[in-house]
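Handoff note, outgoing to incoming analyst
You'll be picking up this chain. Sequence as last confirmed:
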Amino acid sequence: MSPGFASGTQAYTASVPNSVSTFTVTPTTNDANATATVNGASAATPVTLTVGSNTVTVQVTAQDGTTQSYTVAVTRAASSDATLSALTLSQGSLSPNFASGTQAYTASVAHSVSSLIVTPTTNDANATATVNGASAATPVTLTVGSNTVTVQVTAQDGSTQSYTVTVTRAAVSASSDATLSALALSQGSLSPNFVSGTLAYTALVPNSVSSLIVTPTTNDANATATVNGASAATPVTLTVGSNTVTVQVTAQDGSTQSYTVANVTRAASSHATLSALTLSRAV
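Most recent structure output, in case you need it:
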């Protein structure tokens, strides 16, 4: 108490830490026949303190009814508690498990998780918390790879403390699909009819067809296909007789599968005509 107590001094001040939410004021009267109250109640009644300034009035009533008041302005400090009692994620889980005194965590989520909610709970009801500088209700957008989420706790007295969660969002899993959904020839037709799981075919074309385009369509848009090692747009030159066409499909993860049109048979020419006939004069 300041200043030190003196019977003739009626006004005092005092300061207490935030942890002190109540205290007892004990007045002692000079005259045993006088009485004293504290904030209008018995001196034994604890005085509840709010954060900031609290006025405590001690009223002394003499035996003849005259009164005099003493006041103590008690200042209770604001809380400096900038800790959390809980921290949860809407997707994934913290590692290590949450503990109020641990400030750094990691978490992993699937590629399908593009955002999550981080929910901090403060130890002190008067403290506040933000997530990446925004309200804790604001979803955190996640990019593929590492994402740092910062939870800042501001205590009642303005002091701060940060908790961080490094959230790793997985990349897209590479597809192993090296199949075709269609395979077409610009001339002739496949035998048997195309089915994705059938890898070997034959085809017949007339002699007049000296080249054709083989068009493969992959089941997975990320897969690629070549025809005889070249772009599918490259015409395949056909000789008379059997020609093997190989379509190689490469999946996104690098695995491969081949489809073959093993007997693209170009018919022999049936032309048995002359383009010219000349006679030489006999000697």
